[in-house]
């Protein structure tokens, strides 16, 4: 064992505990047993960032100082991505869908039929990395290329799994519009393209969430952008992070009608189940992204009935949480109304999580660049709670 492996381990009873030189002991951090431990790193500051501000107490979200509600109203995803990467708000900033490199198309054709789209997107990013070789440190050009590539890759996978050939992107369209066009093989309804663009703006960035943290950890080792984004996609895949909106759809389907919500929700909470689309690690107020997406969904005529049920069920859930968990403020989160917008633009539920990843590509990229400029390896510590040091038993040969 090396000294670093044993630093937290209790010494053997017959050994003096402090055998280190006095100078080294003075500069070392306190033993792990004496430092506070926060499960899930809750409340721990692990980075300084100038990219996004999640004000959980007041339900505010700012990208480089600009409120999310205003960005949705006044901006496009292309402008917002550029803002996150460079700090500049430019009228002419634009992102267009990229054509796919041949090795990516070949790899997508090789995937088993039952592949989850999130795994397909992660694979596509990995192949992109092998083809493009984006060396550390990540740059705005690398991040822009990857963000423009990802929607084309996901759309190509969706067509291939349905027995269709991928189509080339119409580069006159926005990234969101080009994604819909490549999925469906025809130019999208402009209102649907605008709604999806708004969803992309809302999903672009959210502080040090699990996937962004994963991305920063990987970049902190001076590994490359594609590896960091593959890790981030892996973290986002979990149902507690990016997998929620698809489950919101099945949850509402199961509930059936608002009159049945009270009984269904109480039984679910009593079983210890999570109600999808509610609760957040940081927000103790209504998630401002949910408010922005609810507005977008209200503008989608096809979603009126679904939305009517969703709003009534939301009221019931909030009332029951207020009653059963009065000490923990649990409000609606972004995923509840994301489910409405993503359904409204015609996406099947299993494309919801990877579509979230397409949107979050902008934030991951911005954090990758920021982490590389800090250039500090992220390496926290663990408190050792295993057995004390002891001799390995001999087999007596
Ligand atoms: N349904 C039922 N109980 C809940 C929920 C929920 N949605 N959210 C929190 N709680 C309860 C939980 O049971 C616990 O109660 P108790 O203290 O009595 O055991 C208490 O609230 C604290 O929960 P926690 O899991 O310790 O809190 P957290 O900060 O780790 O959880 C969360 C955050 C998002 C994982 C959780 O709220 C949850 O599971 N929500 C449902 C899944 C969901 O909608 N996820 C999308 C999150 S928003 C997307 C994003 O920003 O990435």
Task: List its salient traits.
globular, 3 strands, about 400 residues, disordered N terminus, binds carboxymethyl coenzyme *A, mainly alpha, Cytochrome p450-Terp, domain 2, single chain, about 5% strand
| Terminal Cα span | 23 Å
Uncertain stretches of 5 or more adjacent residues? 1-8, 13-22
CATH class of the domain at 244-344: Mainly Alpha
Beta-strand residue fraction: under 5%
Mean pLDDT: 92
Could you state the order of secondary-structure elements as H and E?
A: HHEEEHHHHHHHHHHHHHHH
The quaternary structure here is single chain
Task: Indicate the CATH topology of the domain at 244-344.
Answer: Cytochrome p450-Terp, domain 2
How many strand units?
A: 3
What binds here, in terms of ligands, is: carboxymethyl coenzyme *A
Strand-pairing-aware structural class:
mainly alpha
Shape: globular
How are the strands of the largest sheet arranged? Answer: 1-2-3
CATH superfamily of the domain at 244-344: Cytochrome P450-Terp, domain 2
Number of helices: 17
**What is the makeup of the main sheet?**
3 strands, antiparallel
Radius of gyration: 24 Å
Into which percent range does the helicity of residues fall? 40-55%
- Known CATH architecture of the domain at 244-344: Orthogonal Bundle
Explained architecture:
The protein has 397 residues and is mainly α. It has a domain at 244-344: Cytochrome p450-Terp, domain 2. 53% of the residues lie in helices and 3% in strands. The protein has helices spanning 3-6, 22-27, 68-74, 77-86, 102-110, 117-132, 140-161, 175-184, 190-203, 210-220, 225-236, 244-255, 261-271, 288-298, 304-324, 334-344, 352-374, and strands spanning 52-55, 60-63, 66-67. A 3-stranded antiparallel β-sheet has the order 1-2-3. A hairpin with a 2-residue loop joins strand 2 (60-63) and strand 3. The site of carboxymethyl coenzyme *A has 21 residues, from helix 16.
